[in-house]
């Protein structure tokens, strides 16, 4: 199946495969031979070997992106505030938590917790019976 082979090239290397690449390249195997043996592209093998020679490790890199401004405890306090009072504003939550963060950060944290904003009703919605009575 040629489609399955093409998709395999784009999957992440497992830790075991990374170790095999390092071992084979240390045993002076060619990049092409290693790639054929593991059913991977030569580029993947070359990149793994270059990382090993450059950094001395074959572990995947983690931790990309901006650092978080709040701790886990502060995140839980933000969530708790919205659970206690669903109509509380972002500025009130920020004052209660006591952290210098922008309101967008609070909205993002609530979105990550799968909490939506709730606003109080200005008026109760009319039921079909109320509409009928109102028309009469």
Give the mean pLDDT: 82
Low-pLDDT runs of 5+ residues are 3-9
Oligomer: single chain
Q: How many strands appear in the DSSP assignment?
A: 0
The largest sheet, given as strand count, sense and whether it forms a barrel, is: none
Query: What is the helical fraction, as a range of percent?
Result: 55-70%
What general form does the structure show? Answer: elongated
Q: SSE order in H/E notation? A: HHHHHHHH
Percentage of residues in strands:
under 5%
Structural class: mainly alpha
Task: Describe this entry's structure for a reader.
The protein has helices spanning 2-9, 15-26, 31-38, 42-55, 72-84, 90-97, 103-112, 128-135. The chain has 136 residues and is mainly α. Helix 5 packs across helix 6. The protein starts with a helix and ends with a helix. One of its GO terms (biological process) is DNA integration. Residues 75-136 form the Transposase Tc1-like domain. This is Transposable element Tc1 transposase.
